[in-house]
Amino acid sequence: MSSTSPLPLTDRFGRVHSDLRVSLTDRCNLRCTYCMPEEGLSWLAKPELLSDDEVLRLVDVATRRLGIRTVRLTGGEPLLRRGLPDLVARISALPYAPELSITTNGVGLARTAVALREAGLRRVNVSLDTLRPERYAEITRRDRLSDVLLGLAAAQAAGLAPVKVNAVPVRGVNEDEIADLAAFALEHGYRMRFIESMPLDAQGAWERDRMITADEILERLRERFTLEPVARTGSAPAEEWRVDGTDATIGVIASVTRPFCGGCDRVRLTADGQLRNCLFASEESDLRALLRGGADDAAVEAAWRVSVAGKGPGHAINSAEFRQPVRPMSAIGG
Ligand code: SAM
Ligand code: SF4
After folding, report:
1. Could you say which residues of the chain have pLDDT below 70?
2. Which of 77, 184, 176 minimizes the C-alpha distance to 124?
3. What are the Cα distances from residue 153, in Å, to 121, 190, 209, 253?
4. Which residues pair with 274 in a beta bridge?
5. Can you give the residue range of the structural domain that contains 138?
6. Residue 14: its pLDDT value, please?
7. Ligand 2: distance of its center to the CA of 64 in Å?
8. Cβ distance 58 to 269 under 8 Å?
9. CA dist., res. 291 & res. 38, Å (int)
10. Does the C-beta of 30 come closer than 6 Å to ligand 2?
11. Which of 19, 80, 91, 268 measures 20 to 30 Å from 66, CA to CA?
12. Ligand nearest to the CA of 125
């Protein structure tokens, strides 16, 4: 291991990028209504996906040469990736091993949590939008709530702490459960986070009026809890609130109404090896083509730096010119 630090991965606005999201698949075992249509979404073919060796090579370049420190595995549903614990173990054994976490729907977590923890995974975010089985089946179009609840408990027992629970409230669907979800998380020692819904669904059906804003989320929480703001640190997107004078916190991610693009430190790699400098980017850099064309690490590093240098100031969801990116969240890696 060299003792020199890599040059930071900086854009023209001076933002330093140290967080990488890696999508491991665009497929999913759920069909959340705000994310995917019930049917008709076509999947990447296997040869298009990065292999484990390719993922490892890119994470190695990112951590050794570009200063990436944290890596989050996502998808689609990342637990559907075959041999995931092996890949986690290989990433954890890299010379500049990043802090490794995962975002999952939790359906498969009960049977994988221990293996993932032993392989080096540090933390987990589990998406859960309701505690009511019938509603869960309506939102995700699958009857899997009990698996998710077991998955959450298994993650906590395996030491993947703090277990975070992510919910996307949607008007007329689950906004009446905001305080219940928070109470559930507090009771179990999970960290609750609410996320404003974004125009990133595969079917292009997002409607601003159905988004529950951060202000509304906080209003609903204040009906049941006393909230005190926690001073924001670094580039974390969540505004954190301390609950009822305890150490427990609830996070609110106001991507639409209070964008945090000015502090963004993220880059994203899609499951087919395209580098995106923003969730809402309209262009991608084809790192897979470089890898498969025999490029050396310096060439991969250079392409990565060029992509980040060209990053825009922020998303334009709130402007009339906004165009939804062609790739939906499930194919970018949320
Ligand atoms: N399948 C995994 C899961 O659900 O956690 C990982 C991928 S999913 C795309 C990542 C996160 O994106 C989830 O927390 C999900 O709720 C969120 N998400 C999906 N579509 C969204 C949308 N249109 N707006 C905001 N968040 C969304
Ligand atoms: Fe699947 Fe996650 Fe999208 Fe739900 S939010 S359909 S679990 S990728």
Report:
1. 1-4, 234-235, 316, 322
2. 77
3. 16, 9, 35, 24
4. 286
5. 9-332
6. 94
7. 31
8. yes
9. 34
10. yes
11. 80
12. 1
